[in-house]
Amino acid sequence: MNTDEPEITAERSPDPWPALVLLVVTVVAWLGFQTVQLSKERGDLQTVRAAQEPTMQQAQKIRAQLDSIARKTLELAQQGNPGAALIVEELARRGVTISQGPPTTPAGPAPAPSK
């Protein structure tokens, strides 16, 4: 063998499979983590919504009472009561309108999303 001649070696390109497997495992792990986090947050939001339900029902009752009082005040104003007329004028000046129709039933709570 002559040592002056360069030795011919085949350059081997790096194997892409370990990097591809690592990438796939990383993406799957990230998606799994996100799924668990979102599931936990959804449960937390459902708990908060359930805790607010009694307050929302109470607010709807108070709203219905306020609407009833406003309608009765409007009726008195239409019958010529000066105090009621003053109240209706002030409410109108502040942008509050009073519906003259029958009391509307408050819409019930939105249906719970299906699981």
Write a structural description.
The chain is an all-alpha fold. It has a domain at 18-93. Helices cover 64% and strands 0% of the residues. The chain is built from 2 helices and no strands. The chain has helices at 17-78, 82-93. Helix 1 (17-78) packs antiparallel against helix 2. It starts with 16 loop residues before the first helix and ends in a 22-residue tail after the last helix. The model has no long low-confidence stretch (mean pLDDT 86).
Summarize the structure.
The chain has 115 residues and is mainly α. It has helices at residues 17-78, 82-93. It is 64% helix and 0% strand.
Taken in chain order, the helices and strands follow as HH
Mean pLDDT: 86
Work out the number of β strands: 0
Largest sheet: none
| General shape | rod-shaped
Give the uncertain stretches in residue-range form. none
Number of helices: 2
What class, by secondary structure content?
mainly alpha
Q: Could you tell me the radius of gyration in angstroms?
A: 36 Å
Helical coverage, percent range:
55-70%
The portion of residues forming beta strands comes to under 5%
> Distance between termini?
77 Å
